[in-house]
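Reminder to self: tokens first, then the designed residues, so the page reads top to bottom the way the pipeline ran.
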């Protein structure tokens, strides 16, 4: 009996010693683990690490205490891209938030262009028959003419022959005996008169020829429109061939402006839209017109689309080949907007930090539309009422790098996180297999 009691006493003593050693070992292990978890790093240079406080060797900033071993629960796995700030950190980083709202933006597209004549108001005065220019009424480029003003007198044997044909047909009609002959001569008379009209004879000239029966030795050519002579192609006594241009005239009371608009702005430009232009010649004046045509082809070299606008020019201040600066007003519909300070442009994507819960932010990639001086239009990525960081976004971004230093791109979003997790699973499985083996 005494032997049995001794054995029980020794067994209990052994258990006590083993339990004490295990507790001390666990405490020692926990202490070492805690020490291993804590390190000091630079907020601006996360690659700098130290096991004691100090200054960053790169920028001189004070090192911040961080933890390298963090227990990740199943809930935390869903928010790997989230950044949580303490109230003190939020105040120090000057982080402020506002809800996403809808606004009507007034945006202006800037473009440059050049003035040209309006093509419908441009005329070539050309020879309808060969002849020698006996007199010029237009003597220099830039001269203004009115519709019906004479521009040149032409001597032409062909025009003289055409007048004789008309007079012969006229005499035959007047002397005709039978109805059949009258019908034939009337047809010839009509054809000969039509020939004169097609050769730029006026109705008054044909009537004068019929009345006086005197052939005109020189024919006067008249301007078909009122305008300005843009080109004088001939000189006095020049023998012009049929179809040869002698003057180019344009009515500049209305001009066209050709603008080069970048492709990113093309969706906002519509036919009929109002445009305001200014020139260096008249810096204090603005001229209003409207879009009349949008080129269906993009210029591959400049990445612009040519837009044509029409402008009234009663005073003649807008002159062809003059450069202009254009302002195209674009009112947008009631749309989601965010302040420009809220958007971080990383080069590959545009990111906004959204406060998903108190003091917790996640990066959200957004698609931007119209831009003004103060706001971005948001086409996708946000919803009305969500709170976003309008100040302190860069510091939140820096903090996300510190909290997730292994992440190459903290803005990659949930899709990138999922891809990374899927890629890490085979590596983890392989590591477990090797350990078991």
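Designed residues (437 positions):
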């Amino acid at each position: 009996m005494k032997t049995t009691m001794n054995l029980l006493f020794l067994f209990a003593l052994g258990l006590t010693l083993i339990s004490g050693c295990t507790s001390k070992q666990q405490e020692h292990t926990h202490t070492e683990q805690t020490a291993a978890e804590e390190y000091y790093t630079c907020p601006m240079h996360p690659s700098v690490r130290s096991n004691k406080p100090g200054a960053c060797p790169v920028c001189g900033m004070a090192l911040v205490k961080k933890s390298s071993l963090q227990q990740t629960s199943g809930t935390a796995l869903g928010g790997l891209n989230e950044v949580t700030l303490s109230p003190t950190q939020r105040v120090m980083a000057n982080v402020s938030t506002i809800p996403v709202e809808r606004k009507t933006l007034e945006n202006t597209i800037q473009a440059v262009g050049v003035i040209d004549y309006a093509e419908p108001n441009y005329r070539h005065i050309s020879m309808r028959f060969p002849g020698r220019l006996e007199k010029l009424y237009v003597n220099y480029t830039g001269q203004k003419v009115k519709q019906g003003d004479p521009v040149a007198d032409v001597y032409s044997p062909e025009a003289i022959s055409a007048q004789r044909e008309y007079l012969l047909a006229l005499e035959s009609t007047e002397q005709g005996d039978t109805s059949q002959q009258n019908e034939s001569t009337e047809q010839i008379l009509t054809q000969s008169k039509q020939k004169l009209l097609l050769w730029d004879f006026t109705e008054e000239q044909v009537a004068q020829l019929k009345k006086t029966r005197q052939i005109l030795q020189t024919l006067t050519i008249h301007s078909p429109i009122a305008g300005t002579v843009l080109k004088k192609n001939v000189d006095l006594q020049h023998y012009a061939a049929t179809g040869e241009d002698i003057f180019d005239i344009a009515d500049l009371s209305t001009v066209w402006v050709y603008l080069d608009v970048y492709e990113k702005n093309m969706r906002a430009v519509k036919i009929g839209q109002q445009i305001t232009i200014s020139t260096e010649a008249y810096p204090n004046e603005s001229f209003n017109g409207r879009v009349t045509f949008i080129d269906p082809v993009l210029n591959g070299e400049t990445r612009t689309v040519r837009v044509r606008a029409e402008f009234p020019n009663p005073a003649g201040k807008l002159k062809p080949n003059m450069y202009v600066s254009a302002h195209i007003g674009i009112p947008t519909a009631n749309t989601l907007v965010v302040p420009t300070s809220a958007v971080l442009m990383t080069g590959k994507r545009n990111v906004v930090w959204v406060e998903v819960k108190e003091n917790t932010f996640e990066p959200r990639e957004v698609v931007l539309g119209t831009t003004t001086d103060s706001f971005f239009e948001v086409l996708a990525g946000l919803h009305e009422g969500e709170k976003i960081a309008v100040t302190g976004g860069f510091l939140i971004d820096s903090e996300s790098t510190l909290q997730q230093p292994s992440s190459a791109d903290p803005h990659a979003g949930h899709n990138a996180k999922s891809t990374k997790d899927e890629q890490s699973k085979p590596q983890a499985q392989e590591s477990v297999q090797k350990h078991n083996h």
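The chain has four domains: 31-69, 80-103+334-415, 108-118+252-331, 125-250.
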